[in-house]
Design a protein that fits this description.
This protein is α+β, with helices and mostly antiparallel strands. The chain has helices at 14-18, 21-29, 39-42, 58-71, 74-77, 174-179, 201-206, 229-239, 340-345; strands spanning 54-56, 81-83, 100-106, 111-117, 121-127, 129-135, 138-143, 147-150, 156-160, 166-172, 185-187, 226-227, 251-254, 269-275, 284-286, 290-296, 299-303, 306-310, 315-318, 324-328, 332-338, 351-353. The strands form 5 sheets. The protein has a 6-stranded antiparallel beta sheet with strand order 1-19-16-21-14-13. A 6-stranded antiparallel beta sheet has the order 2-3-10-5-8-12. The chain has a 5-stranded antiparallel beta sheet with strand order 7-6-9-4-11, with no helix packed on it. A hairpin with a 2-residue loop joins strand 17 and strand 18. The chain starts with 13 loop residues before the first helix and ends with a strand. The structure holds 1-hydroxynaphthalene-2-carboxylic acid. 1-hydroxynaphthalene-2-carboxylic acid (1HN) is lined by residues 79, 81, 100, 102, 104, 112, 121, 156, 158, 170, 172, 174.
């Protein structure tokens, strides 16, 4: 609900305001405005709930991806992506105020042409097998559940050399970049960037807890650009044998940059969690708007007042300061990405348990 006094400081006399309108109008001519009419809308007592909780059933979304395949190619569209819009933020290509979420589909034989941009991207594979993403001239083959990173301003193209469609989630930080008007983009002159390194080169360099002598890396993003699902899920299951689950998160692991132990991406926190069958989480809320993707399992999630049942491949979003509880009816593995890492760096982040 909005009215003409929204954001106005409570002590301001509403009647007396009428006599000040002439002043406000003259000030406006000089691009001046009274803070006391907007202060409490700018600096709120609690996070503004602009984004809404939402659940995207993959069963309902998939036919639209298929239809998009018939309607447009990857050369014409550059990227064949259907944007997941937060219902509270329509027309803004936002899943939360700071994050983008889309579903990209690529058919056998297609190439999504090479380009680069300041915005960092993550891919989280939802369906298919054997398409590649090439990052700075090194290909990585992608499987369901793999978490793949495109660092800022790095050439990247994708191709599908398999016989199957492939679908992945694109998570990007361009709304953060655009808040600072810091966006640049360039297209590569060819469809694909030339191959500069053999597949697996980076994993050999940095993926086995060793580094080549004299190794250096001049980026804030992890050098590892594919965190394969098989290893992640194996580790999570092993944890259940000797660790206790976190009451709010279950068994949760964060993807990190092996060079410094920090978040794998400087602007997007990423994690995978396992909720064993029958496990229900204690209520939790934080200022980090979070996007979840279900890799395995079924259950339900309550976000604020809304409860959704989830199935594999479904996506749901938990906006800032909404209470979440999860209840797993079968062993559930959930990928999540959020703006937590940025908020922590800026001292914005808050969380409440229980
Ligand atoms: C982008 O570059 C990709 O490279 C996917 O696959 C989604 C959404 C907005 C802006 C750039 C990609 C994107 C994107």
């Amino acid at each position: 609900m909005t009215n003409e006094f929204d954001g106005m400081v409570e002590t301001v006399n509403r009647e007396a305001e009428k006599g000040r309108m002439g002043f406000y109008e003259r000030a406006k001519e000089e691009n001046l405005a009274p803070l006391w009419r907007v202060l409490h809308g700018l600096v709120t007592e609690e996070p503004k709930k602009t984004a809404l909780p939402a659940h995207f059933s993959y069963e309902k979304v998939r036919p639209y991806l298929m239809e998009a395949c018939d309607l447009i190619g990857t050369e014409e569209s550059e990227r064949r992506v259907m944007v997941l819009e937060n219902p509270g933020l329509p027309g803004q290509s936002k899943i939360t105020p700071s994050l983008f979420c889309g579903l990209q589909i690529i058919k056998p034989g297609e190439i999504a042409p090479a380009h680069k941009h300041v915005a960092s991207a993550l891919r989280f594979v939802v369906e298919g097998s054997g398409a590649y993403s090439a990052i700075a001239g090194e290909k990585t083959m992608m499987e369901v559940g793999d978490f793949v990173i495109t660092p800022s301003m790095t050439w990247h193209d994708h191709g599908n050399e398999s016989d199957d469609l492939m679908v992945w989630i694109d998570g990007l930080d361009m709304h953060m970049v655009n808040t600072f008007s810091a966006s640049f983009r360039a297209n590569y002159p060819e469809m694909s960037h030339p191959t500069l390194k053999p597949e697996g080169a980076t994993m050999a360099e940095v993926g086995i807890n060793m580094l080549p002598d004299g190794y250096s890396h001049n980026s804030k993003t992890s050098p590892i650009f594919n965190y394969p699902y098989a290893r992640t899920v194996e580790a999570l299951h092993k944890l259940t044998r000797f660790r206790d689950p976190d009451p709010c998160h279950g068994f949760k692991m964060n993807y990190i940059n092996p060079l410094n132990g920090e978040s794998a991406m400087p602007t997007i926190s990423t994690s995978m969690r396992l909720l064993p069958k029958g496990f229900s989480t204690k209520p939790f809320r934080s200022t980090a708007g979070t996007v979840f993707n279900v890799v395995e399992g079924e259950g339900s999630v309550t976000i604020g007042e809304l409860t959704f049942t989830y199935k594999p491949k479904d996506i749901f979003v938990v906006p800032s300061w909404y209470k979440i509880t999860l209840s797993a009816t079968s062993d559930s593995v959930l990928f999540a990405y959020s703006d937590q890492v940025v908020q922590e760096k800026l001292d914005f982040y808050r969380e409440l348990r229980g």
